[in-house]
Amino acid sequence: MLEGNTAPAPSGRPMRADARRNYERILAAATEAVARHGAEASLEEIARQAGVGSATLHRHFPSRQALLEAVFRGKVEALCASARDLAATQDPGRALGAWLRAVVTHAVRNRGLAASLVRGASGGDPALGATCHTMILNAGEELLAQARRAGAVRSDVSIADLLTLVSAISQATEGDPGGAVRAGRLLDLALNGVHPGPGTMI
After folding, report:
1. What is the pTM of this model?
2. Predicted confidence (pLDDT) per residue in 128-160, tens digit
3. Which residues contact 174 (CB under 8 A, 6 or more apart)?
4. What's the gap between Cα 4 and its chain centre?
5. Cα separation values, 193 from 19, 165, 186, 189, Å
6. Which of 57, 65, 94, 187 is 20 to 30 A from 101 in CA distance terms?
């Protein structure tokens, strides 16, 4: 199940259990379809893979934009959940480095989805971009604070600095067939530059 994507019914009331199951199946099928085929993935095929009819899909997601927004939000929620998992299982410097690599991979692999959301923004949730950005900032800030306390990163580095770096690397590798791998390498080189002393951060 995708964490956090338990939206209320259109009436604002909580979903019934069967409706929630349908919602989650549709969202899981859509996430897989978008990963394989991009933002233009067939809605009919998504409904078929979810085991529901097109009418059920459209009750939960009245438009393609609404479905794509839910997919994107789910990816961001998973990214934020991974920050918590890394903080609990790795030392602070490595946790921050691993999470930033996950962020740059997310940025590279979801370029098409993000571009589609921007194109359809007039018919979607106007707060989505700001909400997702804030979620990522907050998740990263906690990891960075732990890394600072451990002496694994320079004290003058902010999470905004690091996310700007991630964005620049993502843009620099656009069009590269091996973009995710190259972006990860560039990020590793950059992260070693923010380590406060001898050795590496990652």
Report:
1. 0.83
2. 989 999 999 999 999 999 999 999 998 899 999
3. 111
4. 12
5. 50, 12, 11, 7
6. 65
